[in-house]
Amino acid sequence: MSFNIGLSGLRAATSDLNVTGNNIANAGTAGFKQSRAEFADVYAASVLGTGKNAQGSGVLLADVSQLFNQGNVNYTNNALDLAINGNGFFVTSNNGEIGYTRAGYFGTDRDGFIVNNFGYRLQGYAADDSGNILPVQSDLRISAGQQEPRATTSVTQRLNLNSNAVRPANAGTMAAPTFDPSDSRSFNWSTSTNIYDSQGNAHVMTQYFVKNEAPANNGWVMHVLIDGVNPRDPSSTQPYSYAVNYDAAGQLAAPAITPLASTPANPALDAPAIPAGTPNGVFALADTDWVPAEKDPVNPGTLVPNGADSEAFTFDMRGSTQYAASFGVNAVSQDGYTTGQLAGIEIDDTGVIFARYTNGQSKVQGQVLLANFANVQGLTPVGKTAWAQSFESGEPVIGTPRSSTLGALQAGALEDSNVELSDQLVNLIVAQRNYQANAKTIETESAITQTIINLR
């Protein structure tokens, strides 16, 4: 019996050495989780039980469990390297075979799919052409194509006009106004905003502000040119003209903005009418009110239509004021942009993937999914730093990072192995001593047996 006990001890010590050696070998493997050999004693049993004075029959390997405690997060500056800080596993697909891993080595293949270093595709929620996330699990893919341009449909501006200003010397009178965009003494101030046509060409929309005469001190005239010409007629430099009115408190009055029609004294083309229902402080241009233009290659110094279309857009000046302070534009924004090439990828801590383009825009490409299990110890290791679902693990709970009990995602980083080398080296020494001691047990039993054989 002692031979069997010693032999079981040798087997147990060998298993302990194998587990410890595997931990040491994977101390530098990203996403690796160390294992622990768990042993149990053995007693011979009879129908009536072992009895209180039963002698043991050795040891057996009860289980090899994995410890899923958090590894250190090490930053790599590679945008598609991902680390999970907390619970969860990345979900990958190998031609439909689902696996789970903590190793975040990801990149893109030739088709733009996000894959790990074995070519398995990362799973997540895809996004439609508008950047809206679709809640259907699929292979995540990065679109490497250029971003299509978008024509401007909305401009928002906040500015202050100095209430202490006086009408410029060359602006004429209100009854007989004069305006020349090249003469800075025919207007008080000007400001410009870039807007875009359907082909992504940038155009400069310039507003010129002229103070009214007394007693209409709270009124202004705003002249509008696009690329220095009339928005509707590139051959004309006559602007669209609007009256802009403020109340005694320096806030936009009602109505705040009204188009000015041409008169014999003011031969400017009529500014487009403001549609009924337009909020006070907003004026609008229909798609026919602006003809995008470019320089005429035949007649230098003139503009001709460039063949692109414009979208109807609104110009929102609500919040603009007339205070006794210097003129200034406090905020301006518009929603158009030119064509953009893919410049980089960013992933936030909830797993949302953003593509950055050279035109300064970003677009959602999808969202990474994580999986968790009721019993992570029940997962089946399948190699390549991955696990497979088993009956003991239960069904996966799929969700986005930072939802429920799932951890946060850290882009540009990898989770290190959770192996503590100092502990493993001590375990190695202990396993070695156990092996030697069990071998000594067998050696001693052999000597005793030889003594019995030598009896005469």
Number of domains: 3
Remind me, CATH topology of the largest domain? Answer: Tick-borne Encephalitis virus Glycoprotein, domain 1
Radius of gyration: 38 Å
Q: Give the overall average pLDDT.
A: 91
CATH superfamily of the largest domain: Flagellar hook protein FlgE
Structural class, from helix and strand content?
Answer: mainly beta
- Could you give the count of β-strands? 30
Low-pLDDT regions: none
Q: What coarse outline follows from CA principal-axis ratios?
A: rod-shaped
Can you tag this structure with a few keywords?
Tick-borne Encephalitis virus Glycoprotein, domain 1; 5-stranded antiparallel beta sheet; 456 residues; 2 helices; mainly beta; 11-stranded antiparallel beta sheet
Describe the model:
The protein is mostly beta strands and 456 residues long. The protein folds into three domains: 2-69 and 418-453, no CATH class; 73-144 and 343-415, no CATH class; 154-334, Flagellar hook protein FlgE (Tick-borne Encephalitis virus Glycoprotein, domain 1). Helices cover 12% and strands 36% of the residues. The chain is built from two helices and 30 strands. The strands form eight sheets. Strands 5, 6, 9, 10, 22, 23, 24, 25, 26, 27 and 28 form an eleven-stranded antiparallel β-sheet that branches. The radius of gyration is 38 Å and the shape is rod-shaped.
